[in-house]
Amino acid sequence: MSVYIIAEPCIGTKDTACVAVCPVDCIHPRKDEDEYDASSQLYIDPNTCIGCGLCVDECPVKAIFCEDNVPPEWAHYVKINSDHFAQ
Ligand code: SF4
Predict the structure, then answer these.
(1) What kind and span of H or E run contains 5?
(2) How far is the CA of 45 from the centre of ligand 1 (A)?
(3) Mind listing the pLDDT tens digit for each residue in 40-54?
């Protein structure tokens, strides 16, 4: 199964329409989380994402891609998303 990632267009946008449709609450930070204001973008937790793709069409800036189909210039965002959740 392939997961989804959030790339550069989210920076400074952080719309969160994607958060509302995600069935497994794997997109963070949400607006009700302390981290939201300081975060430059939203991230998808690859350990929780079920790859449903529902978030893709919700994004007003087209920032969300399947990890198998990320534009080359944003390929490094796969790691940026997973690193965000690494402890
Ligand atoms: Fe959530 Fe589905 Fe998007 Fe993964 S692909 S972040 S599970 S809405």
Answers:
(1) strand 4-6
(2) 9
(3) 999 999 999 999 999
The overall pTM is greater than 0.70: yes
With H, G, I as helix, E, B as strand and everything else as coil, classify residue 6. Answer: strand
Provide the residue range defining the domain that includes 61: 4-86
Q: What is the domain-level CATH number for residue 35?
A: 3.30.70.20
Task: For ligand 1, pick from 1, 2, 4 the residue to mutate: most ligand atoms within 8 Å of CB.
Answer: 4
5, with CB counted inside 10 A (0-12, 13-18, 19+), is: buried
Report the DSSP pairing between strands 27-28 and 43-44: antiparallel
Count the domains in the chain: 1
Q: How far is the CA of 82 from the centre of ligand 1 (A)?
A: 14
